[in-house]
Specification:
Blueprint lengths: L3 E2 L13 H11 L3 E5 L10 E15 L2 E4 L2 E4 L3 H9 L2 E2 L13 E4 L23 E13 L3
Parallel strand pairs: 1-6
Antiparallel strand pairs: 2-3, 3-4, 3-8, 4-5, 7-8
Length: about 150
């Protein structure tokens, strides 16, 4: 797999919309997107909001079936495959933001079966992946204090 270098380009702009309003518009165009809010301790308002979209990488797994950017194949261990795929990216400099991009997504509870021997699970009625991550091409950061 060819190594890709991720770069950051930071531009400060003032916009008259909330992160939720911006995300609603982005989500209508890019279904593979996310909104992250940061709240620490007893804070009522997050210092930062992050919106990521238009993935450079999309990784999904269910059992031993893996899909990377639409290409499906089987692996022995999806966690190791995720690590292998991630090593095809060079993050370069990370910039000055508290989060400047990278892997965003989730591992489901059932991924633990690759690490621990557990009794059989209940029937899968939701068909959720065991893991689903993206690396967004674009990341917007809202600093609510500046």
């Amino acid at each position: 797999m060819e190594k890709r270098t991720l770069t950051n380009s930071i531009r400060r702009v003032n916009i008259p919309f909330t992160p939720l309003e911006v995300y609603a518009r982005i989500r209508s165009v890019f279904d593979k997107s996310f909104l992250l809010e940061s709240v620490e301790g007893t804070e009522k308002i997050a210092r930062y909001s992050f919106i990521g979209f238009d993935p450079l990488l999309e990784f999904k797994s269910k059992g031993r079936d893996v899909e990377v950017n639409g290409e499906s194949y089987m692996v022995e261990d999806p966690y190791e495959e995720l690590s292998r795929v991630l090593h095809s990216f060079d993050c370069g400099s990370v910039g000055t933001l508290p989060f400047s991009g990278g892997l965003v997504g989730f591992f489901s509870y059932d991924i633990v079966r690759f690490f621990e021997s557990l009794p059989s699970s209940l029937p899968d009625t939701l068909s959720c992946p065991d893991a689903h991550f993206i690396i967004p091409a674009y990341l917007l950061c809202f600093d609510h204090l500046k």
